[in-house]
């Protein structure tokens, strides 16, 4: 089987999952680029373009700094997930965990990086809450299957959005991590 040079680089490079240390302009621009690429062909789920993405990603950063994780391949950010341990769910009538955003640059998909991000997010949330919710576009079948493989269940729909939840076995850990 022939590998593209980029594929070889990904498999050889050490993929690191880390908390985003700061949201500077350069990082924000890279996250916007990933966000916009992630929603190509599904614009109805990705907002109204780059200015929306900038506002939304800043909101995510301000809402869930401690749970804003990035995947890095070498020095390049390949994707990110925003895990909020303090989300008031009107559907649950209480505070739960939430995944506000989860995007992997298309050129890095298919290498297990998304799985590493999701596992880190669920580990983080399991130390802080017993349930997590997310919303996913109804036509985003690949993402829905991905979430179902992690034990998320469809529990409702609002317009084009499907609500999914997962119960976690809460781990007693260091909540100040």
UniProtKB/TrEMBL annotation:
**Superkingdom to which the source organism belongs:** Archaea
User: Which keywords does UniProt give here?
Assistant: Transferase
Residue ranges of domain N-acetyltransferase in the record: 18-169
Q: Which InterPro entries match?
A: Acyl_CoA_acyltransferase, GNAT_dom, MshD_Acetyltransferase
State any single GO MF term. Answer: acyltransferase activity, transferring groups other than amino-acyl groups
Cited Gene3D superfamilies = 3.40.630.30
Q: Which Pfam families match?
A: Acetyltransf_1 (PF00583)
**What's the protein name?**
N-acetyltransferase
């Amino acid at each position: 089987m022939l590998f593209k040079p980029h594929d070889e680089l990904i498999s050889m490079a050490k993929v690191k999952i880390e908390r985003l240390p700061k949201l500077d302009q350069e990082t924000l621009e890279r996250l916007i680029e990933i966000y916009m690429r992630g929603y190509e062909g599904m614009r109805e789920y990705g907002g109204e373009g780059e200015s929306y993405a900038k506002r939304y990603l800043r909101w995510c950063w301000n809402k869930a700094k401690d749970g804003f994780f990035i995947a890095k391949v070498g020095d390049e950010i390949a994707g990110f997930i925003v895990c909020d341990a303090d989300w008031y769910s009107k559907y649950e009538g209480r505070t739960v965990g939430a995944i506000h955003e989860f995007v992997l640059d298309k050129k890095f998909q298919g290498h297990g990086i998304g799985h590493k991000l999701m596992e880190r997010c669920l580990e983080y949330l399991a130390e802080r809450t017993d349930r997590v919710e997310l919303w996913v576009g109804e036509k985003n079948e690949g993402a829905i299957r991905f979430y179902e493989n992690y034990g998320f269940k469809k529990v409702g729909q609002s317009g084009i959005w499907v609500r999914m939840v997962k119960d976690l076995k809460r781990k007693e850990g260091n909540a100040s991590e």
